[in-house]
Specification:
The complex is a heterodimer of chains A (192) and B (194).
Chain A (H helix, E strand, L loop, with lengths): L1 H16 L6 H18 L4 H27 L7 H17 L4 E3 L7 E6 L16 H4 L5 H12 L2 E9 L8 E10 L10
Antiparallel strand pairs in A: 1-2, 2-4, 3-4
Helix pairs in contact in A: 1-4, 3-6
Chain B lengths: L20 H5 L1 H9 L17 E7 L5 E6 L6 H20 L12 E4 L7 E6 L5 E6 L6 H19 L13 H15 L5
Antiparallel strand pairs in B: 1-2, 1-5, 3-4, 4-5
Classes of the chains: A alpha+beta (192), B alpha+beta (194).
GO biological process, one term (chain A): Golgi vesicle transport
Protein name (chain A): Trafficking protein particle complex subunit
Function (chain A): May play a role in vesicular transport from endoplasmic reticulum to Golgi.
């Protein structure tokens, strides 16, 4: 598909030319520490941890979208399918150098899955063996918040959640993204 | 059994035959685990092929056991662990009395520590004073092979402690570490270097 190729090219170009790189292990270990500290702080109440990660992600996403728009210099997406391609091939590409696969669209084009073949946040990680973490903790839940926050700033209200994770022993890491609505009323006033 | 709080002290070589506290402290809890032998997938059809590692261990900087795994069918885990713990004294001795020249400053590989009739023990000391030990039945191991083994083992250890849910200084419970160690141990027998 044309948009997808275009997005891939754009992502590649921005990644190569306009992004400052940091050591991947620094990111991995920092994020890992945050999650394990949250687990300690909330006494292994993993539902709470998921929620906190989502909140943190939301705050990141709200700011990150600005950076994304500045670096990628793209305009509005025509439809939600383009948005998905942008997220995967430009967004994830320039910030993490990964391109999760966009798949499993519903017929109404309002819901898709992102399949993460690799996940830099989860390198080295093995979930605690307490019998609950495997069922309750979404280790990379910050991604959900980031998408939610970022898309909200560009007038899209979405819901994102993980449905499977290799850390839990699933075959793939899959995030389900659902478009709830376009936020029409909060469109910035037309000042042109 | 001595109280667990007694620090596992290092003894001189003369006392090493009697079990120092750390020896007694470790095996009882570990043996039961060894008997359930998760590593057996490695062993059965690989009978002494010349290069056989029978036991590997990771020991913390206070000589506290972090990981101990034997790779034998027979019920000799206790004996192997005893050998491992005796070797710790040899490490301490070497570290405290560095006889040989200065260029060993950054040398982590300690070489052959403790030859017995049936086993040879090789050691490796990281800069954080974590010790790796390897017990082999092969009495003719090349230094390069042992070095190579420890290099891979060190890499596996680094990844295991990078797990954010691992608490430094606690035993390594990671399954993937166990699996990786089994693989490394298996490949040691095949005699490939590199």
């Amino acid at each position: 598909m044309a948009t997808s190729q275009k997005a891939a090219r754009l992502g590649e170009e921005v990644w190569k030319t306009r992004v400052d790189k940091v050591n991947a292990e620094l990111v991995t270990l920092t994020y890992g520490t945050i999650v394990s500290q949250l687990c300690a702080d909330y006494d292994n109440d993993y539902a709470q941890v998921n929620q906190q990660l989502d909140k943190m992600g939301y705050n990141i996403g709200m700011r990150l979208i600005e950076d994304f728009l500045a670096k990628s210099n793209t305009g509005r997406c025509g439809n939600f399918r383009d948005t998905a391609e942008m997220i995967s091939k430009v967004g994830f590409k320039i910030f993490l150098n990964i391109t999760p696969t966009v798949t499993n669209w519903t017929a109404d084009n309002k819901q898709f899955s992102l399949l993460f073949d690799e996940n830099p946040l989860a390198d080295f990680v093995e979930l605690p063996d307490d019998g609950r973490a495997q069922d309750e903790l979404w280790f990379s839940n910050i991604f959900c918040g980031i998408l939610r926050g970022a898309l909200e700033m560009v007038q899209m209200s979405i819901e994102a959640r993980f449905v499977s994770d290799v850390l839990r022993g699933n075959d793939v890491t899959e995030m389900r993204v659902t478009l709830i609505r376009y936020i029409e009323d909060e469109m910035p006033p037309d000042d042109e | 059994m001595p109280s667990p709080s007694s620090p596992p002290r290092a003894h001189g070589p003369t006392t090493s035959r009697e079990q120092p506290p750390s020896i007694r402290r470790a095996p009882p809890s570990r043996c039961s685990r060894v008997n359930c032998r998760p590593a057996d997938s490695a062993a059965p059809d690989q009978l002494p092929s010349g290069n056989m590692i029978v036991c590997v261990a990771v020991v913390g900087h206070q000589n506290n056991p972090l990981y101990l795994q034997s790779f034998t069918e027979a019920d000799d885990a206790l004996k192997l662990h005893h050998v491992v713990h005796c070797s710790l004294d040899v490490i301490d001795e070497r570290v405290n009395n560095p006889k040989r020249s200065a260029p060993t400053l950054n040398e982590t590989f300690l070489g052959l520590l403790y030859p017995t009739e049936n086993y040879k023990v090789y050691g490796y000391l990281t800069n954080t004073k974590v010790k790796f030990l390897m017990v082999t039945t092969d009495l003719d191991v090349k230094d390069a092979d042992a070095r190579n083994f420890f290099r891979k083992f060190h890499a596996a250890y680094v990844d295991a402690v990078s797990n954010p849910f691992h608490v430094p200084g606690k035993k390594i419970a990671s399954r993937s570490f166990g699996a990786r160690v089994s693989t490394i141990v298996k490949s040691f027998g095949s005699g490939t270097v590199g």
